[in-house]
Amino acid sequence: MVTQATQNTLAQAQAYQQQAQNILIQKENVSIQLAEINNALGELEKTTETEIFKMSGPVLIKSTKTSVKKELSEKQELLNLRMKTLEKNEKKLREELEEIREKLTKETHR
């Protein structure tokens, strides 16, 4: 028979697993965005044009290479910070899940 405490611990473990899954999805999205920015920055380095066009929703807007490069670099920096935050959260969740696994193992061997 499963005790109420064990049921609560299992529910907590499931919640943490769902949170971990959400973090993995967010990390994947951030990785894709970073790859797109890196590609765009690489293309900017290749061009000799000083004025370029950038997408803003469904519209192309004329801009300078310097301003677009600065904007992309800022987005890249923010995404890198977001990735670090997600990695910290993921590590914390993994540690908490491990503690729950140990707790469940102790509870089931009583």
Task: Report a brief summary of the structure.
The termini are close together. The mean pLDDT is 93. The protein has a single domain, classed as Helix Hairpins (Orthogonal Bundle), CATH 1.10.287.370.
User: In which range does the helix fraction lie?
Assistant: over 70%
User: So, CATH architecture?
Assistant: Orthogonal Bundle
Low-confidence stretches: none
Strand content: 5-15%
Query: Strand order, biggest sheet?
Result: 1-2
Question: What does the average pLDDT come to?
Answer: 93
* N-to-C CA distance: 12 Å
Please write the CATH class name: Mainly Alpha
Query: What coarse outline follows from CA principal-axis ratios?
Result: rod-shaped
Rg on CA atoms, Å = 22 Å
Content-based structural category:
mainly alpha
What name is given to the CATH topology? Helix Hairpins
Number of helices: 2
How many structural domains does the protein architecture include? 1
What's the order of the H and E elements? HEEH
- Give the beta-strand count: 2
Q: Major sheet, described briefly?
A: 2 strands, antiparallel
